[in-house]
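Subject: sequence -> structure tokens, single chain

Hey, anyone have a minute? Need the predicted structure for the following. Not urgent.
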Amino acid sequence: MSQPTPQVAVDQPVPDFELPATGHDQPVRLSDLLSDRHLVLYFYPRDDTPGCTTEGKDFTEQYARLEQAGARVLGISRDSLKSHDKFKCKYGFPFELLSDEDERVCELFGVMKLKNMYGKQVRGIERSTFLIDRQGVLRQEWRKVKVPGHVNAVIEALESLDR
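Reply:
Had a minute. Here:
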């Protein structure tokens, strides 16, 4: 099985999309989130797993700095809204989590990858983060993210956007 080609590219507009989100009765639409803030969109494999929990906590610990740098943060995985609600509540994340159960947005960003897990190949989300500016243009992407230090790299990129 070949790896999908992302439909997003740095310095190009990101196609509009909408997904159900924690804290919202209606789906959240990308175009409604822009204009006043940049958007940090981070894709993670699964709710309440060690790496994903650490990443969520890192974004939480740096949330004030991210907001000060003019950003809104959203996490995306294939988990259900019910799972997201429990995960968000358990760790007190100050940002919303979006549910992409049908993988449409994951495919748009090209984050679905074949991974080796216990000797078997499985499809899953490759931990990735995307920085989208106020006009909806993708300004930076981080793929195959390693959690330690990642949020600081995102903040540095955000701060350089408005210079």
